[in-house]
Request: fold
Amino acid sequence: MWKDQLAPSLDDFARLAREAFDALPDPFRSLAGDVVIRVDDFADDEVLAGFGMEDPFELTGLYHGVDIGLRDSMGPAADPSRIFLYRRPILDEWCERGDVGLSEIIAHVLIHEIGHHFGLDDDQIHHIEDEAD
Reply:
């Protein structure tokens, strides 16, 4: 049955991420509108080292940029904020869990990283996620 199936490609992930972004309620989508979404197989060694990680499967996503609360409207324009989604760790989590669809995991990681764009830290994001469950 699965002999002819291929793992979702980087382009497939980008499409699923775009669908998840487009499904966000308008106020959130508008505030996150300038974020560039990028899909890579893994975080690079420099990023992993910055988090003290050796296993590239530990990191499923990353926000890189100045959150909207810290931007100075009168100062120089900030570089575009970027959200990185890491395909292989997300696929690994999807396979390990087996109880949730790939689109849902991609959406979850994307929304988590958008939370950082809004200025939330991991503890605040986890608290919101716990309240939503």
Q: What stands out?
A: The radius of gyration is 16 Å. Residues 10-68+78-132 form a domain with the Zincin-like fold (CATH 3.30.2010.20). The chain has a mean pLDDT of 88.
